[in-house]
Amino acid sequence: MESVYLALVLAPLVGAIAAGLFGKLIGRTGSHWVTILGVGASFALSLVVFKHIVLDGAEVYNATVYTWMVSEGIRFEVGFLVDSLTALMICVVTFVSLMVHIYTIGYMHEDPGYQRFFSYIALFTFAMLMLVMSNNFLQLFFGWEAVGLVSYLLIGFWYERDTAIFANMKAFLVNRIGDFGFLLGIGLILANFGSLDYHEVFAQAPTMVTESIEILPGSAWSLMTVICILLFIGAMGKSAQVPLHVWLPDSMEGPTPISALIHAATMVTAGIFMVARMSPLFETSETALSVVLVIGALTSFLMGLVGIVQNDIKRVVAYSTLSQLGYMTVALGASAYAAGIFHLMTHAFFKALLFLAAGSVIIGMHHDQDIRNMGGLKKYMPITYWTSLIGTLALIGFPGFSGFFSKDAIIEATHASSIPGSSFAYVLVLAGVFVTALYSFRMFFLVFHGKERMDDHTREHLHESSGVVVWPLILLAIPSLGIGYLTIGDVLFGDYFDGVIHVAANHDVLGHLAGDWHGATAMITHGIMAPPFWLAMGGLATAAYLYLMRPELPGKIKDRLQIFVTILENKYGFDDFNQKYIAGGCRGIGNLLWKVGDEKLIDGLMVNGSARTVGWVSSIVRQVQTGMMYHYAFAMILGLLGLLTWFVIR
Amino acid sequence: MFSDWPLLSLVVWTPIIGAMLVLAAGRPGGDAPKHIALATSIVTFILSIPLWSGFDVATSQMQFVEQVPWIESFGIQYYMGIDGISMPLILLTTFTTVLVVLAGWEVIKDRPAQYMAAFLLMEGLMVGVFSALDSILFYVFWEGMLIPMFLIIGVWGGPNRVYATFKFFLYTFLGSVLMLVALIYMGFKADTFNILAFHGLGLGMTEQVLIFLAFLLAFAVKVPMWPVHTWLPDAHVEAPTGGSVVLAAIMLKMGGYGFLRFSLPITPDASNHLDWLIISMSLIAIVYIGFVALVQGDMKKLIAYSSIAHMGFVTLGFFLPFAIAESTGSISNAAMGMQGGMVQMISHGFISGAMFLCVGVMYDRMHSRQIADYGGVVNTMPVFAAFMVLFAMSNAGLPGTSGFVGEFMVILASIKANFWYAFLAATTLIIGAAYTLWMIKRVIFGKIANDNVAALTDINSREKLILSILAIAVLTLGLWPAPLIDVMRVTIDNLLQHIAVSKL
Questions:
Q1: pLDDT: is B422 or A583 the higher one?
Q2: Which residue in B147, B230, B305 has the most chain A C-beta atoms within 10 A of its own C-beta, making it the best mutation to test that interface?
Q3: Mean pLDDT, chain B, integer
């Protein structure tokens, strides 16, 4: 199988190199074919791997590809670990990537950077596969930063836009704050475990529970807690958790296909994947789990609220992504790692669908993204409408749709959890269900129903998007509808993750829930009677009332609740604070150190002071200066000889 | 086939003889000097390859040794040899010189023969520094190498070159004169100027501290370490592109090399006693200088400050062993930090060279280094922009590029000594990315800022060749650093064993 794994990873890279370096030579069509074939091959091989590992139950594959370096006898390697978690991730990544590749043919067909775009998204696919297939922390970090690089390049794809090149720098730097923690976490692992190999580290984890580390003098902290929190800081950057979430809404400056692929379906879930992969470590520290739980709950609720006041179609979906990432993080914190991964999978399908549908709307609207200028698009774009409806119902967790199973499992797991903070998280994720339905259907109604608010020119040209755009929507709508029903039994309550995800017995909320599990159909019938369903319906009804029946009301409510709306519109002030105090503060420190430290103190006092002294002396001996270079050189040699002689005869 | 050739002498003297030929062939308007210079640099590079291919990685003994008496009455010898520390630096020197000659090909209009000759001369002397095993020979090369550099800045430099040259001279002269005193003191004490004999020379604590401080001044100026770094931004700003490349890529490494060849093995107890000083200076360099780099408006200054911050990792990695030995109980746990410092030196040679060349490419067209004069360069120079973004990412330590390897190893090593060392060092992940990418944002991306940018033409095939070679080097070292580390492993292990033994 080794050659299969290698081919699976390298196929998109070959496509990326071909389209990137030889894009002019092979042309636009050549570029999209070579990358689509690469990613398509990768997807086909992923299915082969899935069958091999999951259906046929083959041995977990864990082997080295090559040795990056050896230092102090520790091998730093590039290698693959392929188990059921990897198999699931590579199928999701390559499938969504393939859909996005096809969609891009339609979305970007007028763009002068066509080849470059295909090269980037294929390169992204390669980096993401390296990340999820890694068997060690080094390669994980490689993939981690590489997807960040491609994200940087793609957010700034339209490099003439000031907002885009600000957003991509911001995204990279905020992610680097996360990586800062991540790297320190990896450093502590290497220093204490003597290895970066997953299996070796996981095997030692239980023996490290009692170890402590003295970070501040006189304070002994649990080593595992410190390591897990540092690793989680990395996840907070990549998976955009409060307060490192600020880059994700701005990343919408990139073209829509990558918002779907990178900033919704795959890259931003890398943090979730990482924590799930590290379950043997996180299980050793309840404190760390508690932090994960609370951060996730805050993100899920607070970011959902902001989604209600956004008017840019992509930003609504972006805040919804933040909120859903919060749900996944809550699942991790509640030790329901499988539920987090399960939601990651369903979310990848329905959120990619929603983004691509939003892109289809944007094409129809001639790149106007303001939902206040839309309305009544249902009759012009029927396929986009129906697929969006499926995606939205999946997002709000309507019973039977894929999101229902994953989100309900997370809510139930949080309810059952005994990790400190779980009751707080439970309230927030429950309230989040109402918020999700409200912002989702607000957008849905404003876009597809009600009065047609666009100008006449736009209306005359409105039509359904082309085949390469709508086919990916349809293909993504299928799993958005059915994948939850089909797989929940195996993935959450079966033995899918046995031996891959480790849960301590006293944290095993999913095992607890499995006792009440009577099949997916029973879950639906049970779900209709449970609070999340009624909260979702409440949100849907509120949205319908406000935006379909009484469209004049939202304006009035907004005037009444001005303070809250302002807070939400300012996104709680995170951006202003960062801009003013963090970015401004760093520049201030830089100027201070430069002007005062370097120029006044070091240069002014030490260097030029001595230079002036020398200058004064030299004004006296200037007579011997001739301006001829060989005189100086000669004098230097003479001086050297003189010094030597003095030492010798001394 | 090369085993009986005096390879080191060939690598030292070929470029020096080539420099003479270039000068002799120098007539106004003729192309001959350039061709001779290029041929010489390529031949030198080829001659240096057997130093690597024939290198025995299993021994820490000096290899390719040449030893003949020079000034017998004082016991001064023409004694050269290399180990796993100096060999990579020699290859870096010969490699970089080829690129520098190419980079000056059609850019230098004023006295091109003398320009090329100065670089060739400098190449020979720099290789001499890295291969000399007699301290007086070392000192001659060490000082001699400065003369061509003075000339390069003084003759082909910018408007403020006199101040910069003066500052450069003052700093380096003050630094190295004390080193000479230390060398002569030890020479008389040991009755030889053999550096390897100094390693075994018994020295008391006071002697060691004094010698250590003398060396520290010389090497800290060269690295440069905070607070003796302020000559570097000025020198870079005034130097022509080739001068900046050699200065950043090779000359700064002399300081790091000096710590490994002199300070640590000759004065292990003083190094142990004063390691806190170097570690503090290194950490200040990483953090303080990072902030200073952030607010620079001149691209060359920005890269110069970034160099100082990156060199902080080198000195940090070199002086971690004692702290690691104390916290983990064995000094052999410190190899990673030392190897990381070495990798950082080589990698910084590629990256800083590439960054200065990139600025040079723009300067040749716009005659400005000010960030504010640029904006939207990608629109008119897309191929160049791709290279510049790659090197910028490498400068920001992106995994997969060489810039990551050394920083990664030093951070991983420093966490074993003290969590806060690693904490401060790792801030480079954020600050380094901030100053590099902010520059990229303002220079490369955006709309075309003005007519001058609109009139830019993309890089020609000569420039493309130079940058491609560097890009390959940066990526190869980033994706597979194992060969470089294998070369230095035994030497560094041996050095660690040596410094673990007290001389007192």
A1: B422
A2: B230
A3: 91
